[in-house]
Structure formats: C-alpha cells, structure tokens
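Per-residue structure
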Amino acid sequence: MWVVNEPTVGEGLGTAIVFQVIGLQILSLHTVGTMALASRREQLVLKRWRSSEASSTNVLAGTIGIPAALVVIQAVVLTLITAAVYDQRPASVAMLSLGVLAVVASIGAITFVVAAFTRSSEHAMITTCPVVALLMGASVWAMLRPFDATDWAVLALPGGGVIQLLRLGWDGPAGTGLLAWFTEAAPSLLATVVVTALATAGAVRWFRWEPRR
C-alpha cells in the first residue's frame, strides 16, 4: 500500500514505518505468540518441556523467539523497501533499531500476560483483541498529533512509547546535537521501560505452565 500511495496520515514517511512495525507486532508476534503459548499449554507441551533438562527460559524463548525474530527480519525488509521506493533514509538507524527492539520486548512481555488468561488457541482470538485495539488506537492517535505535542496520555498506552521512538528514529529530532536526541527520546524510552517492566512482572506473576483443572 505504501509503495503505490504516499502515507496520508500523520507527518512524513515515519507514519508508514510506524504502521508497518506495529502491524508486524500484531500479526507476527502478539497474535501468533499468544496462540502458540496457549496451544502448547493446553496440550501439556510446556509442562513436558519444563520437566526436561531445558530451563524455563529456554522453553519460553524457544516458543516466542521465532515470532520475535520474524518481526525483526520483516521490519528490516519493509523499512529497506520503503526507503528505496521513496529514496529516503532514516535520521538515525540506531534509534530506529532501538525502537524495533523495544517494541518486540514490550509486546512480547504483554503477550505472556495475555497468554496467561487464554485457555486455548481459539480463545486467543478474543483475548488478543484488547491489545490489538490499544496498539492500533495508540498508533493512530500518535500519528495525528505533532511529535512535540505528545503527552503522557499517549506514552502510557501499550506501544505509545515505542511509536514515538520509531518516529524519532526516522524523522529525527527538531533540534540538533546529542542533547536534542536525548531530550526527545528520554520520555518515550522511559515509558517503554515502565510498560515492559509492568508487563514482565505480570507475566511472572500470572503465567501458568499447565491448564487449570
């Protein structure tokens, strides 16, 4: 869609990059990850794996690691295609990469929380809806607002902080120098760390390895 039509929402080509990455999180990580975790728990696969020599971390990483890796690969490919089509380059590859990795970490943690309350892979079609709605809502809300008008209401939403990091990585800060980068990136990065930490704590508290009887 972005190849044949220029983005019509938000400011600049950063809009396309944000929607591409957030779309990948929804389709390739959150939905698939929730369904995989719920399905393997329902079939007692997670329980059998946990009783093996593999550590709990290896078991969970092996389940969610593949979708996460696919998100990163797809994000790189789509960003390169978009940059080539419009003959533009991101303001900071490092900041853009940080945004992609941050969104994988935050949405990955949220996925474990949602999977904790998902009884089966079919049930995942319902339990993932709130997160999908929040991600899409935060994306559109952020895109319709100038970057310098972003407030904590946007950053507090799941994905709000990483959306701003992605926009900053592509379009760059309003000022110049390292101080301008730090000033504009710090609130978004802090919000992302807080959301990820809360989701991780919730995942540790609520995630179950076997179905409730």
